[in-house]
């Protein structure tokens, strides 16, 4: 017997058209009890495959929204304008969700209106290594902390109105894979509520080869550097302690990796030192360029969404 969620919710799934992964993700969401009121797939693939998949699944509450932009930030901003309900549950196309995910998310959102809630992101049992996972069994209140890296965007409950009030996700290219850290930081320094709830569960089915994992870790480190550059260029010195922590962890990971002979692809911090600094330099140039564009737009017109953040 199907139950009813505590409140109507929208599920938002960004995709770049990885059809086998997306199909498995959608099947897990469709199997949730209670079901969501709608499932919005933000499609950045530019191909017909996602349309064909949704037509084949034949579920009326499942709809596609096209996104011409690149990156999760652009997809999320399009999704913010597309969902019908304020309460959103977000996962990614390479994840599957627990059968109770929708019901748990709706209940948590009702208990903490306007809060940003994240949960467990588990690796499948047979996986040797999967990036971006978390399996802490203890619920945690992060409100008031000044940090980043607490938000797991593949398992997130959020208020659409609250995210829009914050300015949405920053779409600048330097933050292409660090948009979640940037949003998390801006959310916390604005004094908004952020909770970790372990009963909110998804599984991350990573599909990358070892070489692809190294490139992913490089992109993470470079994006983190761009994040620091953005806020330092804005005069925010609070991020300096976090920057120093990342560099220390990166140095330790390099030494630890050489001593233990751990494969490079199994430790994201092995790439941190060099590529964070690269991202910092490139991000500084990007931030200055965007600031100039904002200044020009401010004199002659309204600044673009991207330059306003």
TrEMBL record:
InterPro entries: Nucleotide-diphossugar_trans. It comes from the Bacteria. Keywords: Glycosyltransferase, Transferase. The keyword Glycosyltransferase applies. The keyword Cell wall biogenesis/degradation does not apply. Pathway: Cell wall biogenesis; cell wall polysaccharide biosynthesis. One of its GO terms (molecular function) is glycosyltransferase activity. It holds the Pfam family Glyco_tranf_2_3. Transmembrane segments: none annotated. Belongs to the glycosyltransferase 2 family. This is Glycosyltransferase. It comes from Baekduia soli.
